[in-house]
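re: that complex we talked abt at group meeting.

here r the seqs, copy pasted straight from the sheet so there may be weird spacing, ignore it
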Amino acid sequence: MIRSELIQKIADENPHLYQRDVERIVNSIFEEITDAMARGDRVELRGFGAFSVKQRDARTGRNPRTGESVAVEEKHVPFFKTGKLLRDRLNGKA
Amino acid sequence: MSDKTLTRMDLSEAVFREVGLSRNDSAQLVESVLAHMSDSLVKGEQVKISSFGTFSVREKAARVGRNPKTGQEVPINPRRVLTFRPSHLMKDRVAAGNKK
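got the structure back, here u go
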């Protein structure tokens, strides 16, 4: 399923809403999650999962082609942990 | 970093601000979005949200695990796990936003 198919499903269920509003609604949800993580916040959606930010420490990397050492700065990466209910559903337990 | 935890309520609030539906309807829409995504994943489909990321389901084979405390062998059944791969845009925004 891609974003436009998700929007279509929501639009089909909500015939009283304009398609363009459904688009704005769906987009604002994903936008809010990304914004939160950009601030360093977590987003916890019980039953679905939690989005958080993990810190990767600075390290000395190596250019795999030349073998040369390069300093890699500390950075922050997005992380998602599946919620218990969804994990159970994936395995036919709920 | 502000280290807050957002919940469904904050997402509903964002929907409410965006289109001015009632708070109740906004909460319902957030729920529908999560439900459709979950249903699709449970069916084994990939969920690909452009400029956000991709959720995919991976099959894990059975293996023999070990209780780290007792050293006892325990069988681990084959199972399905969900992985999320953030888009480049999300990675860039998260990296930039948390930079010291």
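couple things i noticed - Chain B has a mean pLDDT of 94. Chain B touches chain A through 57 residues (CB under 8 Å).
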